[in-house]
C-alpha cells in the first residue's frame, strides 16, 4: 500500500470512530498556561505570557509534527480559580501539559489534578521549596527561596552585616526565605534580633519598618513577591532608613527587573541574591532581552519571564522526546534536561524535578542612565537546600 493511501484510510477510520475531535487532538500539542493576568500579581502573568510567546516566535509553533496551541487563562491569583481552570483544561481541552502558576497557593491547589490525570505541570513562577512534593508530575523552572536566600546569608556577615532583621511576606516563600536566611546567618556567627512577617495581600509596610528603625540592625533582609518590591523600597527610603545606617538586602524579588528602573537612585547599592538578572552578561541573554523588548514595547524581562521562557524550552524538548505524547512519556522527557538559559546553565534534577542553577550576588548600579542588578559573584550549580534536610 502506498503511504498516501494508508494515511487516507487511517484518517477515515479515525473520523468514523471519534469525529473531528480525534483528528484535532492528534494534530495539536496543547499547553494550558494558567497565570495571574489581573490583580496584584498581574506583572507575573504579563512577563510569563510575553516570554512564552517569544519562545514560540523564535522556535516555531510546531513540535514533534504537531501544531502547538497555547491556551492562556487568568486565575487572578486565587487558588480556587486556578484549580477550576486546571480541571477544565484537563477535562475539556485535554491539554498535554499545564504550566504557569504565579504564586505558591495556586501551584499547590493543582498538584492533585496533575497526579490524578497524569498531566505534567511546569511551575514557571512559584518558589516555595515544597511545591515539587505536591505531585510527582510537577517540574519547576523558576527557583526556590532557600536556594536564593542562603547565598546572601553567607555574604552578609563577611561584609559587616552581622545583626540582620528579616521582613517577609507571610506565606510559603516568605517563610522559606526567613528560615533559611536566619539559620544560615546564625551558623555564620550572625544574629537575627527580630523576624517580621507582613500579610501577603495589601501589605502596609509602615509599622514594620518603624519597628526595624527602632531595633537599628546592620541590615534588613526582605522577601516580598514580584510586584511588591517598589513599595518596600519607597517606604524604606522615605523613612530615611538608609541614612540611619541600615542596609537593605534581600532576594532578587525586591529589586525585580520589572520595576527596578523606576525605583530611583535610592536603590543604588542594594545587594541581592538571585538566579536571574536582565543584565546577566551572556550572548544568549543579550539576545533574549533584546528580542523580548522588541516584541513588547521596550519591556525588560524579569526572573518570571526567565522561568516562563525556560519552561517552554523544557516543554518543547520533552514533546520532541515523547513524539508529541503527553502523560508519563512527556514527564520523562522533562527530567534531566540540561541546557543554557538566559540566566546561565540550568539543569532539571531527575530525582527532585526541581531546578539546579547558579545563584548570583548582585548590586544595583547605574549604566547608561538605567538601573540594573549587576552580578559580582556566583555560587555555581546550587540545589534547593530545602530538599537536602
Ligand atoms: C512566589 C511569588 C513571587 O512573586 C515571587 O517573586 C516568589 C515566590 C510564590 O508565591 O511562590
SSE order and pairing:
Blueprint: H1 3-18, H2 20-27, E1 28-35, H3 42-59, E2 62-63, E3 66-74, H4 79-91, E4 97-100, H5 104-117, E5 121-123, E6 138-140, H6 145-158, E7 164-169, H7 172-187, E8 195-198, H8 206-215, E9 219-223, H9 229-238, E10 247-251, E11 271-274, H10 283-295, H11 303-321, H12 327-334, E12 338-341, E13 344-348, E14 355-367, E15 370-382
Parallel strand pairs: 1-3, 1-4, 4-5, 5-6, 7-8, 7-9, 9-10, 10-11
Antiparallel strand pairs: 2-3, 11-14, 12-13, 13-14, 14-15
Helix pairs in contact: 1-2, 3-11, 4-5, 6-7, 11-12
Residues 44, 103-104, 125-128, 172-173, 225-226, 253 line the site of 3,4-dihydroxybenzoic acid (DHB).
Number of domains: 2
CATH top level of the largest domain is: Alpha Beta
Instruction: Average the pLDDT over all residues and give the rounded result.
Output: 94
Radius of gyration: 22 Å
What can you see in these coordinates?
This protein has twelve helices and 15 strands. It is of the alpha/beta class and about 400 residues long. It has two domains: about 25-145 and about 285-355, Response regulator (Rossmann fold, 3-Layer(aba) Sandwich); about 145-275 and about 360-380, 3-Layer(aba) Sandwich (Rossmann fold), CATH 3.40.50.2300. The strands form two sheets. Strands 7, 8, 9, 10, 11, 12, 13, 14 and 15 form a nine-stranded mixed beta sheet that branches. A six-stranded mixed beta sheet has the order 2-3-1-4-5-6, with helices on both faces. β7 (about 165-170), α7 (about 170-185) and β8 (about 195-200) form a beta-alpha-beta unit. α3 (about 40-60) packs across α11 (about 305-320) and α4 (about 80-90) packs parallel to α5. The longest helix has 19 residues, at about 305-320. The protein starts with a helix and ends in a 7-residue tail after the last strand. About 50% of the residues are buried. It binds 3,4-dihydroxybenzoic acid. 3,4-dihydroxybenzoic acid binds near residues 104, 128 and 253. 3,4-dihydroxybenzoic acid (DHB) binds near residues 104, 126, 127, 128 and 253.
Amino acid at each position: 500500500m502506498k503511504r498516501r493511501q494508508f494515511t487516507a484510510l487511517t484518517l477515515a477510520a479515525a473520523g468514523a470512530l471519534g469525529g473531528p475531535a480525534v483528528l484535532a487532538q492528534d494534530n495539536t500539542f496543547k499547553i494550558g498556561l494558567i497565570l495571574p493576568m489581573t490583580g496584584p500579581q498581574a506583572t507575573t502573568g504579563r512577563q510569563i505570557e510575553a516570554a512564552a510567546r517569544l519562545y514560540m516566535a523564535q522556535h516555531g509553533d510546531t513540535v514533534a509534527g504537531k501544531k502547538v496551541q497555547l491556551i492562556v487563562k487568568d486565575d487572578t491569583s486565587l487558588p480556587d480559580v486556578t484549580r477550576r481552570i486546571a480541571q477544565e483544561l484537563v477535562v475539556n481541552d485535554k491539554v498535554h501539559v499545564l504550566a504557569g502558576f504565579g504564586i505558591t497557593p495556586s501551584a499547590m491547589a493543582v498538584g492533585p489534578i496533575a497526579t490524578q490525570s497524569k498531566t505534567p505541570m511546569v511551575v514557571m513562577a512559584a518558589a516555595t521549596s515544597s511545591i515539587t512534593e505536591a505531585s510527582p508530575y510537577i517540574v519547576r523552572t523558576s527557583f526556590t527561596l532557600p536556594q536564593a536566600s542562603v547565598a546572601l546569608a553567607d555574604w552578609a556577615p563577611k561584609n559587616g552585616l552581622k545583626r540582620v532583621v528579616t521582613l517577609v511576606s507571610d506565606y510559603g516563600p516568605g517563610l522559606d526565605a526567613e528560615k533559611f536566611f536566619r539559620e544560615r546567618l546564625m551558623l555564620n556567627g550572625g544574629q537575627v534580633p527580630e523576624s517580621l512577617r507582613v500579610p501577603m495581600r495589601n501589605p502596609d509596610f509602615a509599622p514594620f519598618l518603624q519597628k526595624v528603625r527602632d531595633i537599628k540592625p546592620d541590615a534588613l533582609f526582605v522577601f516580598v513577591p514580584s510586584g511588591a518590591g517598589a513599595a518596600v523600597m519607597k517606604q524604606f527610603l522615605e523613612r530615611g532608613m538608609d541614612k540611619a545606617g541600615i542596609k537593605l538586602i534581600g532576594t532578587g524579588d525586591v529589586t525585580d527587573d520589572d520595576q527596578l528602573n523606576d525605583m530611583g537612585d535610592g536603590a543604588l547599592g542594594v545587594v541581592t541574591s538571585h538566579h536571574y538578572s536582565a543584565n546577566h552578561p551572556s550572548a544568549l541573554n543579550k539576545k533574549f532581552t533584546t528580542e523580548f523588548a522588541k516584541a513588547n514595547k521596550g519591556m525588560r524581562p524579569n526572573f518570571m519571564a526567565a522561568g516562563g521562557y525556560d519552561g517552554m524550552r523544557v516543554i518543547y524538548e520533552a514533546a520532541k522526546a515523547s513524539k508529541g505524547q503527553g502523560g508519563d512519556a512527556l514527564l520523562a522527557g522533562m527530567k534531566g534536561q540540561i541546557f543554557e538559559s538566559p540566566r546561565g546553565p540550568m539543569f532539571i534534577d531527575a530525582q527532585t524535578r526541581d531546578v539546579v542553577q547558579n545563584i548570583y550576588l548582585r548590586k544595583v548600579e547605574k549604566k547608561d542612565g538605567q538601573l540594573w542588578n549587576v552580578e559580582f559573584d556566583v555560587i555555581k550549580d546550587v540545589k534547593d537546600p530545602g530538599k537536602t534536610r
